[in-house]
Write a structure and sequence with these properties.
With 159 residues, the chain is α/β, with parallel strands linked by helices. It has one domain: Rossmann fold. Helix content is 18%, strand content 21%. The chain contains three helices and six strands, in the order H-E-E-H-E-H-E-E-E. The protein has a six-stranded mixed sheet, with helices on one face. Strand 2, helix 2 and strand 3 form a beta-alpha-beta unit. The termini are far apart.
């Protein structure tokens, strides 16, 4: 039996925003963002989004189309990534921004071999977070309808 330590928020803030400069780079590369899968009114990047009251994990993401944005609570990535793996499909691309924790069980089980991975350079400075975020981040992109040179693999993206 293998022991896997639980992932936890360790008291980190879960309500920060994604900077506009980075979002513009994401839109330039992947196209417009159509739906924010985990947000609240102060940090949503799309007009349409699931709020904490709506519980994104209880919703059927397969009814959504286009580019779905996900910046999940970093203390609860595993259930969101499981849902990404199960929900990606034709006409639906899921783009998730998370810490670059490639040794985490959630990355191995739900992203590695299932999503394109983009390690981000430089580090992101989240809105509402004093100073730069202390960890490297990555985008994981589940897309089963490749367009414009999209491919599954790993890349360092100098956004």
């Amino acid at each position: 039996m293998m022991f896997h330590p639980a992932q936890g928020s360790q008291g980190s803030r879960q309500d920060v925003g994604t900077p506009d400069e980075f979002l513009r780079a994401v839109i330039a590369r992947f196209g417009p963002l159509d739906f924010d899968l985990a947000a609240h009114s102060a940090n949503a990047v799309c007009l349409r989004f699931y709020s904490p009251d709506e519980d994104s994990l209880a919703q059927d993401w397969t009814t959504l189309g286009g580019n779905l944005w996900l910046n999940p609570p970093f203390g609860r990535i595993a259930p969101f990534f499981r849902k990404c793996k199960l929900s990606a499909g034709e006409g639906r691309r899921i783009i998730a921004l998370v810490p670059a924790s490639v040794g985490a069980r959630w990355f191995i089980e739900y992203a590695f071999d299932y999503a394109a991975v983009y390690f981000l350079n430089p580090r992101i400075k989240f809105i509402g977070y004093d100073g730069g975020f202390p960890k490297d981040c990555m985008l994981c992109v589940w897309d089963y309808t490749p367009k414009d040179g999209w491919k599954k693999g790993i890349e360092v993206w100098e956004w």
